[in-house]
Write a structure and sequence with these properties.
Layout (H helix, E strand, L loop, with lengths): L5 E7 L16 E2 L2 E2 H11 L4 E6 L3 H7 L6 E4 L6 H6 L10 E6 L7 H11 L4 E7 L8 E4 L5 E5 L6 H4 L3 E10 H8 L15 H8 L5 E3 L13 H21 L2 E3 L5 E9 L3 E3 L3 E9 L4 E2 L4 E3 L2 E2 L4 E2 L4 E3 L1 E3 L4 E2 L3 E3 L3 E3 L4 E9 L2 E2 L4 E9 L1 E3 L4 E2 L4 E3 L9 E3 L4 E2 L4 E3 L2 E3 L4 E2 L4 E2 L8 E2 L21
Parallel strand pairs: 1-4, 1-6, 4-5, 7-11, 12-14, 13-15, 14-16, 15-17, 15-18, 16-19, 17-20, 18-21, 19-22, 20-23, 21-24, 22-25, 23-25, 24-26, 25-27, 26-28, 27-29, 28-31, 29-32, 30-33, 31-34, 32-35, 33-36, 35-37
Antiparallel strand pairs: 2-3, 6-10, 7-10, 8-9
The structure holds uridine-diphosphate-N-acetylglucosamine and magnesium ion.
The site of uridine-diphosphate-N-acetylglucosamine has 27 residues, from strand 1, helix 3 and strand 10.
Length: 459
């Protein structure tokens, strides 16, 4: 058997007028990623050797936004129909290729569904992905003969009342042998109700040649749905999120409400993870066994180790949370934060580019930036590391078993040794050695019998 290369052609030339947007339709996001990027990634996941993106409107915006992807840009200057769109890619197609036609505004097709379509194509030069809809209005209908063989596709506007009753429709997604596709495309005309070059006309051409056209179906209708307006886009977003929620539950997470979680990136979960409502995940997030995440948290590009507890209203970005660590409520962990085993960060604490050692605590109202905190050290309420002198950032190093009294300012660069103690309200500007007590604040003076001043004229 000769192996054939998968050559993907993604149609994305439509204007998307109904989006009412300056952004080309296919750049509108699902889960924070442009719809067309989902499609490109699916083609990549299938091992496509070439990915052609047929664009018309907003070419510059598309090329800028999609510059990370290796695609071949194919311009369709005038949108004369889906057949005309694929014709523009002909120079990119080899005879032995399996050409996979995809759509830039149909982002949710599962890899398994496309693999099944390609498997169906293995026995035929042509395979169609079809779907049966409760309301097929507007779609191209799949016409079959009395033996169930596909003989053509008739567009809604060209169909007879009898054909309008057909519920099996064309999704538009198809896999075709390169040589046959090129031959059929060269025979297209625009003699139809819309005056367009219909890609779908190649089906009748294939049938006329005696080709047995294969077909397969997706598991879910949402896999083949496109978005023409923002209502449909919101529908795709929900379908995508439901799929993510189901995957997390199947992987061992309890979701208190699967409809109130958003995954905009990749989340992996261990077993017995509990995620409460209104939690948003972005980027790459790893959550190990037994982690609990309370309501209203945003977690971006972070790693949360086993048994950690993220309390309500916390925001984590680029953070590494150690085993059994506690975060929040109302904590903010910024990039470069690392919490060791059992460390605890409480409410209104902001941490940036800092390490908290094993069992260390910063319970309340604190800012730690560019700081290294040793094991079992206690950072009192209201402690601020003054890490920025207006020009440069400086480091604060705090040893293990230290105690920083409340409302202290640690003016970096500064070191505080193991088991050192800082008196509350201190402004620490120079090194405190191990086991020392440092108190750096105005001394209290008491004046007995002090008479407050009185207003002039009062007795
Ligand atoms: C098409 C199919 C129809 C199918 C339906 C599924 C044809 C003739 N009809 O109809 O059988 O049921 O999709 O949604 O193929 N595009 C271009 N260049 C063009 C025209 C279209 O890139 O010149 C792109 C559009 O951006 C869009 C896609 O192709 O993403 C489909 O085009 P559209 O005109 O919406 O096709 P339908 O009329 O819906
Ligand atoms: Mg159309």
């Amino acid at each position: 058997m000769t192996t054939t290369a998968i050559n993907a052609v993604i149609l994305a030339a439509g204007k998307g007028t109904r989006m009412r947007s300056a952004l080309p339709k296919v750049l509108h996001p699902v889960a924070q990623k442009p719809m067309v990027a989902h499609v490109i990634e699916s083609a990549q996941a299938l091992g496509a050797e070439r990915i052609n993106l047929v664009y018309g409107h907003g070419g510059e915006q598309l090329q800028t936004r999609l510059s990370d992807y290796a695609v071949d840009w194919v311009e369709q200057a005038e949108q004369l129909g889906t057949g005309h769109a694929v014709q523009q890619a002909i120079p990119q197609i080899n005879d032995q290729d399996t050409v996979l036609i995809l759509y830039g505004d149909v982002p949710l097709t599962r890899i398994e569904t496309l693999q099944a379509l390609l498997a169906a194509k293995a026995d035929s030069p042509f395979a169609l992905l079809t779907v049966t809809l409760p309301d097929p209005t507007g779609y191209g209908r799949i016409v079959r003969d009395s033996h169930g063989n596909i003989t053509g596709i008739v567009e809604h506007k060209d169909a007879t009342p009898e054909q309008h009753k057909i519920a099996e429709v064309n999704t538009g997604i198809m896999a075709v042998n390169g040589e046959a596709l090129k031959r059929w495309l060269s025979q297209l005309d625009s003699n139809n109700a819309q005056g367009e070059f219909y890609l779908t006309d190649i089906v009748a051409m294939a049938a006329a040649e005696g080709v047995a056209i294969a077909s397969s179906q997706p598991a879910q209708i949402s896999e083949v749905e496109g978005a023409n307006n923002r209502v449909q886009l919101a529908g795709l977003e929900r379908a995508y999120q439901q799929r993510q929620a189901e995957a997390l539950m199947m992987a061992g997470a309890t979701l208190l409400d699967p409809a109130r979680i958003d995954v905009r990136g990749n989340v992996t979960v261990g077993s017995d993870v509990v995620i409460d409502v209104n939690v948003v995940f972005e980027g790459q997030v790893t959550i190990e066994d037994g982690v609990v995440i309370e309501p209203n948290c945003i977690i971006r590009d972070s790693h949360i180790a086993a048994g950690a507890h993220i309390k309500a209203n916390s925001v984590l970005e680029g953070a590494k949370v150690g085993p059994a660590a506690q975060v929040g409520p109302f904590a903010r962990l910024r990039p470069g934060t690392e919490l060791a085993t059992g460390a605890a960060v409480g409410n209104f604490v902001e941490i940036k580019k800092s390490y908290l050692g094993k069992g260390a605590k910063a319970g309340h109202l604190t800012y730690l930036g560019d700081t290294h905190v040793g094991a079992e050290t206690n950072i009192g309420a209201g402690t601020i590391t003054c890490n920025y002198d207006g020009v440069n950032k400086h480091k604060t190093e705090i040893g293990s078993g230290a105690f920083i009294g409340s409302n202290s300012s640690l003016v970096a660069p500064v070191q505080i040794g193991d088991h050192a103690t800082i008196g509350a309200g201190s402004v620490i500007t120079s090194k405190v050695a191990a086991n020392e007590l440092a108190v750096a604040r105005g001394k209290q003076r008491n004046i007995a019998g002090w008479k407050r001043p009185v207003k002039k004229g009062d007795k």
